[in-house]
Amino acid sequence: MASKKSKRNWLILLIFLALSAIIGYQYIYQDHRNIETEKAEFALTSQTISDEFKLDVLKSEKKYLNQTIEISGTITEVNKNDLTLNDIVFCQFNTSVNQSIKVNSAVKIKGRCIGYDDLLEQVKLDQCTFIK
Amino acid sequence: MKNIIYLLFLISFSITAQTKYFTKTGTVNFEASVPSFEEVRASHNVVTAIINTDNGELAALALVKGFRFKNALMEEHFNENYAESDTYPKATFRGKISNFSLDKLNKEKQKFIINGQLTFHGKTKQLDNTTVEIAINDDIIIISGSFTASASEFDIDIPKVVRSKIASNIDVSFSFNLKKK
């Protein structure tokens, strides 16, 4: 006869399977990083980061790639989803840039460094947001 | 001395005289999906591309970490195991559009042939006879096209476990709206 014990074993197995399914699902469908809420690893000016990349691309890539960084500078170009600081740091936004933001204003931006564009000689950031 | 100055002037003049069109926000998408499995698809919206309209030379650069997937884990695996974007952060294309001339372009899309080298994951592959469609509208050159690449050509090894879920032929499409520099 099916004892209480074996019934309980089945129940434990079922709970275990359900739990691993939930954990597995959450692992496979985990959320993207949220750069906006991450704390910046580095805070520097557009000139400093650009100089570092120009001096030694490999070393700077090791240091900054995929890191959340804060850049301060002056806007030299604004488009729908991106802006450029001092002609040397390109920032892409996930949402459209507030169009009241004007060229020549000083801003601080947080984003993820994706590398150095040697065609235009610009450092590129994505998933940017304004700080302050 | 006068001659040298004259020569320098000529050289600098010829450099500035080159007409270049460029974009910082070109699009490159790739897809390696297999039917009935989760889509393997990424898009990149900040690809840089420059064309020299005097001779049809085209250069494009995509920072590999800028490829965004819907699935975060897939994006992580792509960067860490396949593209190895910490070691190879750039994907580049350098090529030339045959018989290109700015005067030929108009609002209608026209087909051109482009030949060049595609570098990804530290490997360079010759990409020949790719058809691109080019049009010009309000002084913006619009270039678009697609090609197929395989992971093995770029030394990317797809593990057996997931081989059935990732297509071996990867469809790559691109679109650039270039404005005058």
Automatic annotation (TrEMBL), chain A:
InterPro entries: Protein_unknown_function_OB. Pfam families: tRNA_anti-like. This is tRNA_anti-like.
From TrEMBL, chain B:
InterPro entries: Lipid/polyisoprenoid-bd_YceI, TTHA0802/YceI-like_sf. The keyword Transcription does not apply. The keyword Mitochondrion does not apply. Residues 20-179 form the Lipid/polyisoprenoid-binding YceI-like domain. This is YceI family protein. SUPFAM superfamilies: YceI-like (SSF101874). The lineage of its organism: Bacteria, Pseudomonadati, Bacteroidota, Flavobacteriia, Flavobacteriales. It comes from the Bacteria. Keywords: Signal.
